[in-house]
Design goal:
With about 190 residues, this protein is of the alpha/beta class. Helices cover about 30% and strands about 20% of the residues. It has helices spanning about 15-25, 35-45, 55-65, 80-85, 110-120, 130-140, and strands at about 50-55, 85-90, 95, 105, 125-130, 145-150, 170-180, 185-190. Strand 3 (about 95) and strand 4 (about 105) form a beta hairpin. It is globular, with a radius of gyration of 16 Å. InterPro entries: DHFR-like_dom_sf, RibDG_C.
């Protein structure tokens, strides 16, 4: 039996496990957390410019456990998440099945080089959901052009910083701010040259 999410619908225990792991793991960088209906529309808008989704192995496993079975009526972002090409940067996965009809492509080797290669091949933006190790490497290499930070008003009492220690100072310009029900806000920053 699920628990109410604040919008009146009910989520399964498995969905709540995903949301807890996902939000606690990296709720600041473009991760789907329970939010207001307007927030869901904002995510659909954002996904229109995305050409592919990139994951690290742990985040891929979380997504593959939840999103292929997600009800598109309850979770409208399930449709573009299902349809977009998916890539997993991993040295441990032999394969990355998604559902009965598709798989994610496993990219081996250096994550920064793999993402640079995808940028050359993929039309549209690349979104990296979660994937702390990969995001750390990309931030350290100066390969992140835009940060979309979701602020969820939950005090965790601990955690890790957004950028890993030793990341070079980089200036960012606030490009957009949107607020949604429940105190959720999305901040979009663009890197300055």
């Amino acid at each position: 039996m699920g628990a109410p999410d604040g919008q009146g619908d009910r989520r399964t225990d498995r969905q709540h496990r995903w949301l807890r792991r996902g939000c606690a793991g990296w709720h600041r960088l473009l991760l789907r957390c329970a939010g207001a209906p307007g927030d869901r529309q904002e995510q659909l808008r954002m996904l229109r410019s995305v050409g592919a989704i990139v994951f690290g192995a742990r985040t891929y496993r979380m997504f593959a456990d939840y999103w292929p079975q997600a009800d598109p009526v309850a979770e409208p972002v399930a449709v573009p998440i299902r349809e977009l090409p998916k890539f997993v940067v991993s040295s441990t996965l032999a394969a990355a099945p998604w559902d009965a009809d598709q798989s994610a492509t496993v990219l081996r080797g250096d994550g920064v080089a793999a993402v640079r290669g995808l940028r050359e091949r993929i039309d549209g933006d690349l979104v990296i959901w979660g994937s702390l190790t990969l995001v750390d490497a990309l931030l350290g290499a100066g390969e992140v052009d835009m940060l979309r930070l979701r602020v969820v008003p939950v005090l965790l009492g601990g955690g890790r910083p957004l950028a890993p220690p030793g990341t070079a100072t980089r200036r960012w310009r606030l490009a957009r701010v949107e607020s949604f029900g429940g105190g959720v806000a999305v901040l979009e920053y663009h890197a300055l040259a």
